[in-house]
Design brief:
Blueprint: H1 9-18, H2 21-34, H3 40-47, H4 51-67, H5 71-92, H6 94-97, E1 105-108, E2 111-114, E3 129-134, E4 142-144, E5 152-157, H7 161-165, H8 173-179, H9 181-189, E6 194-195, H10 196-203, H11 207-219, E7 223-228, E8 231-236, H12 238-265
Parallel strand pairs: 3-5
Antiparallel strand pairs: 1-2, 4-5, 6-8, 7-8
Helix pairs in contact: 1-4, 8-9, 9-11, 10-11
């Protein structure tokens, strides 16, 4: 189980290294049974004593080479998902937490249905649920059902994961002309409450530069701010939403006009 809401790689690797050998081999055996054949050399390495420490070493290398360079953007995406679901739970209850996860996850009465294979049932009384957003899975969820007292855990695609890897930050010509490109990008991004540092990481600018743009947007009643813990979170006002919606409607109208023009010309 993660040691914090966003995890800390040192603590997580230490937990892997400290896992009892019996548990390591049980997990490796389960994984081997669920996948296709592997080379005998790899299988022997996995079933030999000390596999937990070796796997932790490999995970550390993968973290340093593949994950660490993008960790600020990944953490921002995970934080925004956690913030969104926390607000949904506080404002509208448990059903709102899973509302945008259907059909992968859905709440029906007192049962939570999760689309995973193989299927199983697990009582949540006394153990609860641990939700783990991820930027590395898409259109599926992964369930971890360990015996009590461990909570039932499932890993799901974080909100905005597609935009993070395949982002198009072009807010459209009209909005960019009105506000300036950077301010238009910021206003577009504030569909989810976000803090200055996260915006700076996302757009590759200094926190001071982002703060200046936020001040202009706020002075024109396009965004508002509120303190959440150690962060000041910015989000769009109704006027900001209307401006974004107007830009989207204009873009759709332009696209439709372009399509009709092509049809008329036989393209």
């Amino acid at each position: 189980m993660p040691k914090s809401s966003l995890g800390a790689i040192e603590a997580e690797l230490a937990a892997v290294r400290a896992t009892p050998e019996e548990r390591v081999q049980a997990e490796i055996g389960r994984c081997l049974r669920m996948r296709g054949p592997i080379s005998e050399e790899v299988r022997q390495s996995l079933v030999a004593p000390g596999a937990g420490a070796r796997l932790a070493g490999l995970l550390e290398i993968l973290w340093q080479v593949l994950i660490a360079p993008s960790w600020p953007q990944i953490r921002d995406c995970l934080e925004r998902d956690i913030s969104h679901r926390s607000r949904a739970l506080a404002g509208d209850g448990l059903a709102a937490v899973f509302e945008d996860m259907a059909p992968l996850v859905r709440l029906g009465g007192r049962r939570l249905y999760v689309d995973v294979q193989p299927t199983c049932e697990r009582s949540l009384e006394g153990v609860g649920i641990l939700l783990m957003p991820s930027v590395f899975i898409f259109r599926r969820v992964i369930a971890i059902v360990d015996p009590p007292p461990a909570p039932a855990t499932f890993c799901y695609p974080a909100r905005g994961v597609t935009a993070m890897w395949f982002e198009d930050d072009d807010p459209g010509d009209a909005l960019a002309t009105l506000l300036g490109t950077t301010r238009a990008q910021i206003l577009e991004a504030l569909g989810e409450p976000t803090h200055t540092t996260a915006l700076a990481v996302r757009f590759g600018k200094s926190a001071g530069n982002i703060a200046d743009h936020l001040a202009v947007l706020r002075s024109n009643d396009l965004i508002t701010r509120t303190r959440v813990g150690r962060h000041v979170m910015y989000s769009r006002t109704a006027l900001g939403d209307a401006l974004i919606a107007g830009g989207a409607a204009e873009a759709a109208s332009d696209a439709a006009a372009t399509g009709q023009s092509r049809l008329a010309s036989g393209e």
